[in-house]
Structure formats: C-alpha cells, structure tokens
Amino acid sequence: AVGSGFPVGLAEDIGRAAAWLASQGHDGVGAALKAIRVRFLRPVMPVNEHGVLVFHTSHSAICGPSAIDLLVAEEASHGVRLLNVDSPVLIIGLAGTAAVNYCIEINLAFSYGGEASVSADNLVLNGSLPAPGTDIFITIRKVGRKTRKGKSHMGGVVISEEIWREAAAFAARTYVASTEESRLQGAGAGMTDND
Fold first, then answer.
1. How many whole angstroms separate alpha carbon 34 and alpha carbon 86?
2. 29: buried, middle or exposed (CB in 10 Å: 19+, 13-18, 0-12)?
3. What is the pLDDT of residue 159?
4. Looking at the predicted structure, is the pLDDT value of residue 154 above 80?
5. Which partner from 40, 175, 178, 187 sits 20 to 30 angstroms from 78, CA to CA?
6. What are phi and psi of 4, to 5 degrees?
7. Phi, psi at residue 47, to the nearest 5°?
8. Rounded mean pLDDT of 163-186?
9. Among residues 41, 64, 76, 30, which one has the least CA distance to residue 170?
10. Averaged over 158-181, what is the pLDDT?
11. Which range, 5-14, 124-133, 151-160, is most confident?
C-alpha cells in the first residue's frame, strides 16, 4: 500500500486487514490489491442521515478505517453505510482487526442480502463474499474483555501468481536503489555483521 502512495498508517491498516483475512482462509492480498490499485484518493466526509453516517463515495482503504473508527468512538449511533464499495472483502478484514483491537463484534449487512458477523478470531458469513460495488451497513457491539473462541484457518490460502507479481511490484516501489551513493548514506548492510 505504501508503494501505491498510501500513508504509512493506512498502509498498516490495509496490511493487517489482509493478514486477518488470510487467517480466516480468504485471499487478503487480492482484497488489498483491489483497494490500492487506484491512485490514493482524498478522504470523504460522511453525511449524517437520521443517525446513520453515510459515505457516498466508498473507497474501502480510506472510508473503511474511518467508518469503523467512527463506530468505535460512538460518533455513529445507528451505524455506518458505505455505498458502492470497491473492495468489500477488505472491509471484512478491517472489521476483523478492529474486533481484535477494540474487543467488539461487528456486523456487516450487504446490499445483496448477505451478511457477515466478525469477532476477534471468527468470521461467520451468511451468503457469499461480497463483490465490488456492494453497499455495506456496519454496526458494532462491545463484548468486553478479549476471549478466544474460534480457531484461525490453518490450511493456507492460495494466491495466484498474477496477484503475487502485482503485490511484489507495489512493494518494489518502496526499495532504496542499490548504488554506492545510497550505501554511503546508510542504506543496506554495513561492512561487518556488527554494522
């Protein structure tokens, strides 16, 4: 995500969400790539519609963390609605990491009728994973102290070679050039193991 132009904080949120999705047996790398392929967009302010905060332009990598933060801070008393989400699976991952960090359960209702219930270590889907363009309504429930009830997926996740190549290309944008000048300025390893 940093290689795509996202600030470090949002990039970390995206990475953690991808890792949480993988722990549940879903392609977190693909979900993250769907969100970071577009050029970094400016934040969008939600509109309060009868106690529900609505993001009319819902770029998941920007609006997703904001929506969940607003819910946790109790700024959205009746929930948050994200319209036309570009990577709704990433929103599930963001909900998973928030559930871990804030001891909450998050419910995501999708415009096609499916829903997901997310806790710190469990994802329960009712219906299929949402496709790009889905609207999502998000609510939370505080559960108190952390408890470990479910098990993480341990069978691995298959990621296509094309997806790995694309992720590696974004990562390569963050590398320091291997030149004598960059080494003189402190990049890379030193002359001995102690450097």
1. 7
2. buried
3. 78
4. no
5. 40
6. -90, -5
7. -110, 135
8. 75
9. 30
10. 78
11. 124-133
Beta carbons within 8 Å of 104's beta carbon, 6+ residues apart: 72, 98, 140, 141, 142, 143
Contact 82, 91 (CB under 8 A): yes
Show the 3-state SS of the chain: CHHHCCCHHHHHHHHHHHHHHHHCCCCHHHHHHHHHCCCCCCCCCCEEECCEEEECCCCHHHHHHHHHHHHHCCCCCCCEEEEEECCHHHHHHHHHHHHHHHCEEEEEEECCCCEEEEECCEEEEECCCCCCCEEEEEEEEECCCCCCCCCCCCCCCCCCHHHHHHHHHHHHCCCCCCCHHHHHCCCCCCCCCCC
Q: Does the global pTM surpass 0.70?
A: yes
